[in-house]
Amino acid sequence: MQKPSDTVLNAGVGIVHLGLGAFHRAHQAIYTEDAMDASGGNWRIVGVSMRGAGVRDGMQAQDCLYSVTERADGFEDARIVGALADVLFAPEDPAKVVELIASPKIHVVTLTVTEKGYSHDPATGALMIQLPEIINDLDLRNAPKTALGYVVRGLKARFEAGNGPINMISCDNLPDNGRIFEGLALEFCQHAAPGIVGWVKENVAFPCTMVDRIVPATTDDALDASSTALGTRDEMAIQTEPFKQWVIEDKFTAPRPKWEKAGAQIVKDVAAYEAMKLRLLNGSHSTVAYLGYLGGHKTVSDAMAVPEFKSFVRQLMDEEVTPTLDIPEGFDVTKYKDDLLGRFSNPTLAHKTWQIAMDGSQKLPQRLLGTLYQNMKAGKSNAAAGLAVAGWIQYVGGVDEQGDVIDVSDPYADELAEVHKQADGDVGKIVDGFLAIEKIFGPMEDQPKGLDFVLIDALDQLCRDGAMQCIVNYC
Ligand code: CS2
Question: pLDDT (tens digit, 9 = 90+) per residue, 390-432?
C-alpha cells in the first residue's frame, strides 16, 4: 500500500484549500501529493472546513492522514495520503484563514465550496448582493461567512502586506468556473474594497478548471470496509473510483505545484472539456438522480442495472447532449461516453441518487438547461432532457411516487415547494410557476419558445405513468 513519502511529510505548506470535503481529499490532494513526489516543492495543504468542525476534528485526531480506496468491480487499491498539513474550521478562527491567504508562503488557494458556495445567481453568474450572508460579508469589519468574504479579506491583507501575486483556483462544477469566480471576486471588491480592484486584476490568476472523480459521501459501511482492509480504524477513510481527471487552464501569476507530473492536463482552453464534462457526466448524473430516485432507485448503479434506464441515458448523451458540444481535438467522445456508463454502473460505490439530487436549482442551468435550450432553439430532439428537467420539478415537489415525503435539500427548497403548493396539482400552473423563476430558468424572453409545452407534456407523463414507465416508453 502506498504511504506518504518523507518528501511529502517534510514539505512546507504552499496551498490553502477552502471547502474540505471528501472530493478535495480524493482529488486535488492526491494530484498535489504525487506532484510533490515527482518534483518536490513546499506544497502541502492547509484545508479549511467552512461549515462543520467534524472534518477538522477527525483529521486532527489522526495527524491529518487518511486513506483513499479506489474501488470497482473486482478491484480495490488503497493508499494513505499525507498532503494535508493542517485543517482549520473557519468560523472558529476566521482571522487565521485570512492571515493564511495573505501569507507569503501561500501561492495557491483552491476551492471546492459547491455551486451554491459562490453566492451567485445560477442563471447569470452575478453576485447576489441581497443575500444576508453577502450583506454581512460586504462590511469588512464583520467576521466573514462566505467563501468570497474570506477570499476578498485575504486578498486585501495580502495587498496591504505587499506579499505579491497568488493563484485562485475554483474546482467546482461551474461552467467557466475561473471566469465566474473572478467576476464575483471583482464585483465583491468593487463594493467592499474598491482600492484593490486594480491590484487583483494584475496579480491574481483565476484559471478555469475541469475536475472529475466520483466520490460518494462516506457511509458507515464504507468506513468499516476500509478500516478492515487497512487493519486500523480510519474515521476519515474515503472510497472512490479508479478514474480521475483534472484539466487546468494555463494561466498563473504565482508558483504552483507541477500537477502535470501527476497526470493533470495544463491546457490553453478548458471550455470544451468543461462543457463536455458538465453536460455529459453531470447532466446524466442529475437525470439519473431525479428520475432514478422517483423510480425507487436509491443508488446510481441500481438505476443503471435496469437496461432501459442505461439505454435512456445513452440516448440522452448521443442524441441530445453530444450535438451541442465542441469536442476537444483528438478526443474520443464515444469512448468517453462508454466509460461514463461503466463508471455510473460501478456497483461498489453506492452513490446515492439523493446525494446527487441536492441543490438542483444551482446545478440545472449548466447541466441540463443549456442542452435543452440549445436543442429547442435549433428545432432538434429534446424529449430526454425535457423529461429530466420535469423529473427535477416533480422531485422538488417533495413527494415521491409512493406518496412518501422526499427530504429535498436545496437553497431554494421553500420557494420551489411554494410553487407546487400554489398550483395545487395543476401541471400547467406548476410549470408556469417554475419558468417564472429567472435565477434558474433565465428571463422569459431568453427561454426557447414552447418550453412550457415540453415540460407540461413530460410532467404530465411522469404524474400519470411514473418515472420508470416513462423511461421504458421512451426507449
Ligand atoms: C455529482 C458530482 O453530486 C453531484 O452532483 O454529479 O459530484 C460528480 O460525482 C462529480 O462531478 C464527478 O466528477
Answer: 999 999 999 999 999 999 999 999 999 999 999 999 999 999 9
CA dist., res. 355 & res. 299, Å (int): 9
Residue ranges lining ligand 1, Cβ < 6 Å? 173, 212-214, 281-282, 285, 355-356
With cut-offs at 50, 70 and 90, classify the pLDDT of residue 280: very high
- The residue whose CA has the least distance to atom 13 of ligand 1 is 212
With a pLDDT cut of 70, the percent of the chain lying above it is 100
Reply yes or no on whether the pLDDT at 329 is more than 90: no
CA-closest candidate to residue 114, choices 236, 13, 213, 24:
24
- Rounded distance from Cα 28 to ligand 1 centre (Å): 15
Of ligand 1's atoms, which has the minimum distance to the CA of residue 215? 9
Mutate-to-test residue for ligand 1 from 214, 290, 300, highest number of ligand atoms within 8 A of CB: 214
Which atom of ligand 1 lies closest to the CA of 282?
Answer: 6
Amino acid at 437: I
- Ligand 1 centroid vs 356 CA: distance in angstroms? 7
Q: Which atom of ligand 1 is nearest to the CA of 216?
A: 9
E strand or H helix at 109:
strand 108-111
- pTM for the full predicted model: 0.96
Give the pLDDT of residue 185.
Answer: 98
Least Cα distance to 22 among 114, 96, 107 occurs for: 114
pLDDT digits (tens, 9 = 90+) for 66-92: 999 999 999 999 999 999 999 999 999
Q: Which residue lies with its CA nearest to atom 3 of ligand 1?
A: 356
Average pLDDT rounded to a whole number, residues 351-380: 98
**Burial degree of 280 (CB within 10 A; 0-12, 13-18, 19+):** buried
Burial class (CB in 10 A: 0-12, 13-18, 19+), 421: exposed
Q: Which domains does the chain have, with CATH numbers?
A: 6-267 (3.40.50.720), 271-474 (1.10.1040.10)
The three cell numbers of residue 149 are: 468574504
The interaxial angle of helices 467-474 and 283-294, nearest 10 deg, is 120
- 209-212 and 108-111 beta bridge pairing: unpaired
CA distance 285 to 356: 7
The residue to mutate among 215, 279, 282, 355, having the most atoms of ligand 1 within 8 angstroms of its beta carbon, is 282
Contact between residue 288 and residue 300 where contact means Cβ atoms under 8 Å apart: yes
Instruction: Using the predicted structure, report yes or no on whether residue 328 has a pLDDT greater than 90.
Output: no
Q: Is the pLDDT of residue 368 over 90?
A: yes
At residue 409, the pLDDT reads 98
The grid coordinates listed for 262 are 501527476
